[in-house]
Model the fold of this input.
Amino acid sequence: MTMLTHPGSRFKPASHRSGRRAPTTTANLAMLKLICLRAIGPLLIAVAIAGVIVLKAAVFLSRVSH
Done:
């Protein structure tokens, strides 16, 4: 039965904070931007290195086949 009752008293209703989302602040947006940049930076570097390797392999294979 305790699961069905709310934790507030008879005159004070229970808070329903779990259903609401907090508004996004500029500090949260700045932190999110920083996290995204730190995650995307190494990914872009890895893609650039892979592209250079593919180009070198293409040049090498085009010379070998002739």
Remarks:
- The CA atoms of residues 42 and 48 lie 10 Å apart.
- The two ends are 83 Å apart (CA to CA).
